[in-house]
Design brief:
mainly beta; ten-stranded antiparallel beta sheet; elongated
Length: about 170
Amino acid sequence: MQKMQATLERPKRMRVSKVAIRGFLRGQIVDGKTGKVLGDTSWIENSLSNQGLTALAAWLGQVAGSSGINYGRLGTQTAAFNMTQTDIIGATASFASLSLSTSGTCTMTATVSFSSTMLGASCNVGAAGLFYTNSAGTLFCGQTFATSQWNTNQNFNLTYQVRFATA
């Protein structure tokens, strides 16, 4: 009886794909009546949370109970964002539903406007995040920025981009 041995070899020119995920946010405080921009963070790179990366993998695999991002939230947090966070510290407004779109450049854009009526009193806003549900503990990504005074006669417009690219 002859022994059979099988070996698997990787083709010499096998193409390997690497995917990079980067997120960016931009916040603008605008006058509630005129719409004039009063403050602008410009584009800031944000961080995906550990929980967000796990949830993204579950969503891509259509694991039961998984879902995409649906809400935005602002906070007074000034300490650097930590990947182990599950919420934004010092929430300043309730969760707000996102408007989502994608582009041909592998970018998902989420926009949300927090109206002055969502704000009980003026505060210094310094953090933003995206969430899967409208409850604490479901943070996908977030970041802190230079704090700005957000007054009850102003709105806060938030734009997030999650960009996918081959590395």
